[in-house]
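Structure (tokenized):
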């Protein structure tokens, strides 16, 4: 799993230099939509932070099917994994800009204790996300899965009008559903006046209580 650690939380923590190192030393790189940022089983030599756009992490199965592990947005750090290799690949959801920093440079900027603490805090947060994702995949109905996804996106983006840079197929692969089921559930939620889509890539919540009940 890739580990997200928001810049804002690092500033509030104030005890480690992870975000500051990314800002000062990170190299800005641009990636086109669907371009690979790093591959599954690549060495974990670098740490990445989304500046603009969005990123998805993907695990490919032997038969060609894929499972999306997570989506990352501006202000989030990814690729900070404890093992020697990436378990998921990372791709650009859309044209995006990413800060890239070698771990060796990060260690020179922030001592080992601070870096280990940052990794541990990020690991804890990602494990909480993974547990929620496991519950979503295994125990929720299709409507509850889609409602949970929309509620999570709204909470993470923190805006009234929430952009969805991912495709319907991306959402389906994240939720373990077919694209037809995802489209049907989105239409159902809009018909019930729980959410409203201004376009296929942007929505707003109309009934927060109803969405929260479905997502709970």
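Design, position by position:
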């Amino acid at each position: 799993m890739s580990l997200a650690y928001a810049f804002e939380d690092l500033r509030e923590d104030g005890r480690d230099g992870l975000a500051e190192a990314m800002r000062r030393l990170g190299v800005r790189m641009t990636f086109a939509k669907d371009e690979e940022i790093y591959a599954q089983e690549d060495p974990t030599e670098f740490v990445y932070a989304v500046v603009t756009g969005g990123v998805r992490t993907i695990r490919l199965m032997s038969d060609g099917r894929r499972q999306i592990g997570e989506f990352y947005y501006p202000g989030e750090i990814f690729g900070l994994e404890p093992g020697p290799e990436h378990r998921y690949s990372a791709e650009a959801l859309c044209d995006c800009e990413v800060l890239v920093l070698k771990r060796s440079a990060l260690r020179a900027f922030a001592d080992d204790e601070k870096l280990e603490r940052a990794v541990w805090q990020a690991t804890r947060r990602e494990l909480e996300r993974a547990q929620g994702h496991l519950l979503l995949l295994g125990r929720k109905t299709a409507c509850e899965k889609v409602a949970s996804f929309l509620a999570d996106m709204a909470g993470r983006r923190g805006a009234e009008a929430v952009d969805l840079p991912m495709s319907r197929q991306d959402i389906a692969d994240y939720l373990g559903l077919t694209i037809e089921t995802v489209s049907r559930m989105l239409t159902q939620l809009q018909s019930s006046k729980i959410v409203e889509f201004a376009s296929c890539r942007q929505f707003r919540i109309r009934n927060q209580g109803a969405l929260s009940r479905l997502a709970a």
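Reviewer-requested clarification: The longest helix spans residues 112-139. Helices lie at 7-13, 18-25, 103-109, 112-139, 142-157, 168-175, 179-191, 208-215.
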